[in-house]
Amino acid sequence: MRQSQSSVLPKPASPSTEPERRHQPVVERIAGWSIRHRKTAVLGWLLLVVAIFFIGQHIAASNVNSYDPGQSGQAERTLDRLNVSGPPPSESVLIQSRNPNTRFATDQAMRHAVTQVVAALHRLPRSTASGITSPLGPGGRSLISADGRSALVTFTIIGGNATQKVLPALKAVASVQAANPDLRIRESGDASVDRVVNATISRDFRKAETTSLPITLILLLLVFGALIAAGIPLLLAATAVISAISLASVVGQWLPTGQSTSEVVLIIGMAVGVDYSLFYLRREREERARGASMTEALRIAAATSGRAIVVSGLTVMVALAGLFITGVDVFTGIAIGTIAVVGITVAGSLTVLPALLAWLGNWADRGKIPFLGRRRTASKPSVLWTALVTRVMRRPAAWGGAAAIAMIALALPAFGLRLANPPNGGFSANLPLVKTVTATQRAFPQAPSPAQIVVTGTDLTSPSVSAAVAALRGNASATGLIRPPVTTQLVAHGRALIVDVRLAGNGTGATSDRALLALRDRVLPETFGKVSGISYAVSGGTANNYDDIAALDTRTPFVLAAVALLAFVLLLIAFRSLPISLLSVALNLLSVAASYGLIVLIFQDGRLQGVIGYTGYGGIVPWVPLFMFVFLFGLSMDYHVFILSRIAELRPAAPPPGRRLSAASRPALAS
User: Fold this and answer.
1) Is 11 helix (H, G, I), strand (E, B) or coil?
2) Distances (CA, A) of 512 to 155, 506, 518, 522, 536
3) 31 Cβ partners below 8 Å, 6+ apart?
4) 90-189 and 450-539 agree in CATH topology
5) Which helix or strand (DSSP H or E) is residue 451 part of?
6) SS3 call for 102
7) Cα angle value 139/145/146 (rounded, 5°)
8) Cβ contacts of residue 465 below 8 Å, gap of 6+?
9) Model confidence over 45-95: pLDDT tens digits?
10) Would you call 239 helix, strand, or coil by DSSP?
């Protein structure tokens, strides 16, 4: 029986009459136009990619800020709206003797090195080194460590572009170090840390670019057995990634998109670009192996794999759209970029891919790999995979039960998942800058940065506001959750009042969180909360960290529920089967849970840190579980859609279930 045109299930391949061609589904009509106008489709696609790339390159870099969720973001937005910037980036130069018995007060080499550092910094532009303070200057006693073995020279960087302005200072300090090999002279601070972070991320991104393409090409050569065919998925993926990153830079004029967006777009773009091309190419080869002409093979591929690509792309985009629900600005930018790259890849799979295959013809099979090319280009069934699937289908309950038990066992450790930020920002303790920061903190232990209360209103110098500040100071004690001193500063010509309050704890632990909640929920409502005409919000390091984790804890269940529900609805519409839709979503959730269990065992518990080369810290970065769910669920549903579509297509011909599943699973396994 023929399926209705509204069905998204692939129709079995059969000759079509001319009247039927007029009523072809949209996917087939798009592919048919691309095949007939192959040069126009291919060249038009390339010109479009080039145009988008140049538009993205010529648009000025965005200055759209990203804000934390909760009260922290509210305070940040208020200060940004009032054009109130934070303190300028500060840098410090640590001077230590390599001899543990040496003391700064009596060691002339250390004192001379301090003089050299100060002189070198004074020779730099004022924007690079301003407000230089030395342990040899007035009030310099605080710049000498308690044990007398270390000294600090501090300065600030004024103006923008601090990560570039700090470079001359780093070179100047390095020259002083070279002249004093018996001493440790190292610089660290806000700008130098940001510089290293940006450089590390950029280096890793370039490494990912240079390694992912060759590795992917090798895998595709093994799958297709021909060089030209293996290059087609890379071409589609590369053009989609370039277009999406360029579009993200355009959108970045209004929404926060940054380096993290580009990194994730590269990963997702390569994944779906290879997936969709592989399924399309595989189907086209199968039809040609059965004797179909190139045009007919491409038409059938569009009617089957093309439709599945549309459903799969929608499912992946639905999963990625879950990041919008988090309310976190950075995640919003990533969602925009990844949805764009999936949408572009789907569009390319329906247009330029069939056009390119029609244009190349048999040339797509050129460049065959010896001993492998003939079998791969003929698209012959895999003996190993067919035998394995046949065994599974003979005893589906036993194999399925064993797999389910294994997945559940892997998922059990996920109940011990602990969210925590890594020390040193997640960078290796062997990194020179991290060593310098650690040594500086050890020699000059400091209290964590204070909580920052941003107060706005009409009259911030009124007696009622002053009384609220006095009451806040009265709540501070040396042993309480709220610690002195409590300082105030009027900014933006009196339109905002910044109140700094120190909190108990180390800034990130449970004690600091309790102090923050006490400030927000009890102290401030009893002080500033009783003053009419004002509003306030609490920010700062502790507040930022707490609000980020709290937002993820609150929103993640909604993300999971919304993504799973929408995916279920899409599958139900696509396959018109309630059991299949429920089972597919359940299996995806189980696979994500098993993945959570694995990261707990491997990364949180540190069971393979010697093999993989990392240092566990007893926790998982707070945003990782959410990202894992969104990406794993989307890509896993991707494979489910292709396998189920192929099974549904083969079902009318009624081959044995094992052969049906084997034929459906081969492209997914290769992908």
Assistant:
1) coil
2) 29, 6, 10, 15, 20
3) 298, 299, 301, 302, 306, 350, 351, 354
4) yes
5) strand 451-457
6) coil
7) 105
8) 455, 457, 459, 497, 528, 531, 534
9) 999 999 999 888 877 555 577 788 889 999 989 988 888 877 788 899 999
10) helix
Other CB atoms within 10 A of residue 558 CB: 12
What is the C-alpha to C-alpha distance for residues 114 and 108, in angstroms, rounded to an integer? Answer: 10
- Cα 392 from Cα 414, distance rounded (Å): 28
Beta strand 451-457 with 130-133 is unpaired
Sequence-ordered list of residues with C-beta below 8 angstroms from that of 470, at least 6 positions apart, any chain: none
Q: What is the mean pLDDT of the chain?
A: 83
Residue 193's identity, in one-letter code, is V
Strand 482-491 and strand 183-189: pairing?
A: unpaired
Measuring CA to CA, which residue among 482, 553, 540, 548 is closest to residue 511? 482
- As given in the structure block, the two tokens for residue 475 are 């709540």
Distance, CA of 253 to CA of 203 (rounded, Å): 25
- Cα radius of gyration (the chain): 31
Q: Are strands 130-133 and 183-189 parallel, antiparallel or unpaired?
A: unpaired
Contact indicator for 439, 186 with CB cutoff of 8 Å: yes
Q: In whole angstroms, give the CA distance from residue 383 to residue 387.
A: 6
**Paired sense of beta strands 150-156 and 130-133, if any:** antiparallel
Under the banding of pLDDT at 50, 70 and 90, the label for residue 661 is very low
* C-alpha–C-alpha distance, residues 410 and 412, integer Å: 6
Check if CATH label 1.20.120 holds for domain 450-539.
no
In this structure, the chain runs to a length of 671
Cα–Cα separations (whole angstroms), residue 525 to 462, 522, 535: 18, 6, 11
Q: What is the arrangement of strands in the sheet containing 482-491, beginning at the earlier edge strand?
A: 482-491, 496-503, 451-457, 534-539
Q: Find out whether the peptide bond into 485 is cis, omega within 30 degrees of 0.
A: yes
Name the β-bridge partners of 92.
154, 188
Cβ-contact 73, 67 below 8 angstroms: yes
pLDDT of residue 266: 86
Q: Would you list the domain boundaries of the chain? A: 25-59+225-416+549-670, 90-189, 450-539
How far apart are alpha carbons 388 and 614 in whole angstroms? 36
CA torsion angle 479 480 486 491 (round to 10) = 140
Residue 100: DSSP 8-state: T
Asked whether the beta carbons of 172 and 123 are under 8 A apart, the reply is yes
Kindly report the number of other CB atoms within 10 A of residue 654's CB atom: 8
User: Is the per-residue pLDDT at 17 higher than 80?
Assistant: no
Task: Determine how many CB atoms are found less than 10 A away from the CB of residue 62.
Answer: 17
Residues 274, 233 contacting (CB under 8 angstroms): yes
The 183-189 sheet, strands edge to edge: 130-133, 150-156, 90-97, 183-189
Residue 265 structure tokens: 């777009």
- Do 240 and 269 touch, CB atoms closer than 8 A? yes
Q: Which of 86-95, 155-164, 174-183, 390-399 has the highest mean pLDDT?
A: 174-183
Rounded Cα–Cα distance for residues 212 and 634 (Å):
20
- Reference 489, options 77, 13, 91, 85; nearest CA is 85
* CATH number for the domain running over 90-189: 3.30.70.1440
Burial degree of 326 (CB within 10 A; 0-12, 13-18, 19+): buried
Distance in angstroms (rounded) separating the CA atoms of residues 210 and 204: 10
Closest CA to 542 of 619, 451, 476, 453: 451
Strand, helix or coil for residue 148: coil
User: Tokens 């599945």 correspond to what residue?
Assistant: 308
Which residue, chain included where needed, has tokens 């209360």?
453
